[in-house]
Amino acid sequence: MSPSESPARPSAPRTARARVRAQLTAEIVDVARQHLASSGAAALSLRAVARELGMVSSAVYRYFPSRDDLLTTLIVEGYDALGEAAEQAEAAVAREDLPGRWHTACRAVREWALSRPHEYALLYGSPVPGYTAPQATIAPAGRVGMLLCRILADGLASGAVAPPGDDADAALHPGLLADLGLPEGTGIGSRAILAWSGLFGAVNFELFGHTNNVVDDHEAHFDHVVTRLAAEVGLTPDA
């Protein structure tokens, strides 16, 4: 298996051998996640993980042929956990309450980041030297962005959100708006990306200490940022 192929964690294995493999895979990933907190992603070592599990390193390599394979699994699982947290929170809000859905999803992102800072840092912190994220990380990484775009698409469909009508979308990758479920040539895609980057920028600044001695009430400030980002995409309290 090459580093670009993420070893999937099996679901509902049927045979005893498959169950044992799934359990050991989960244990390896869990120990690796602990190492993220204690040593950081750049220092992640399959040998160190093997030692903590009482396994020889060659045994671990049967599950994860390289450090990059293990990192990819940690990254994919992190993105999926973050996306699921935002999706579940947003799903509990009434469909017609577009601003409520937006704010709830954004708050869930912040809460997940604050509760799992080392996993968040793996996703949105400094790049790991020598590691290149493979294709397998792209869809999980987009879950939060896609969720925000679905809220916008619902607003456009209901008429609650009016596209800005400028040409800012001309700078975007061809075919991106179709993938996001947003109309072409209206400027709404560019606004959505602004909001998406603004959301994670606000979380990053708080989590990595850039707003220390600048912001006293981070929760109130974050809510203000989210409200401003919602206004940028046309989601007002009356939407």
Keywords:
single chain; 239 residues; mainly alpha; Arc Repressor Mutant, subunit A; Tetracycline Repressor, domain 2; 11 helices; elongated
Secondary-structure blueprint:
Elements: H1 16-39, H2 46-53, H3 57-61, H4 67-91, H5 98-115, H6 117-124, H7 138-141, H8 143-158, H9 176-180, H10 188-207, H11 218-232
Mean pLDDT, rounded to whole units? 91
Low-confidence stretches: 1-6
How can the largest sheet be summarized? none
CATH homologous superfamily title of the largest domain: Tetracycline Repressor, domain 2
Number of helices: 11
User: Any idea of the CATH class of the largest domain?
Assistant: Mainly Alpha
Q: How many domain modules?
A: 2
- The sequence of SSEs as H and E is HHHHHHHHHHH
**Helix coverage percent:** 55-70%
Estimate what percentage of residues fall within beta strands.
under 5%
CATH architecture of the largest domain: Orthogonal Bundle
Classification by helices and strands = mainly alpha
What does this structure look like?
The structure is a single chain. It contains 11 helices and no strands. It has 239 residues and is an all-alpha fold. It is elongated, with a radius of gyration of 20 Å.
Question: How would you summarize this macromolecular structure in one to three sentences?
Answer:
This protein is elongated.
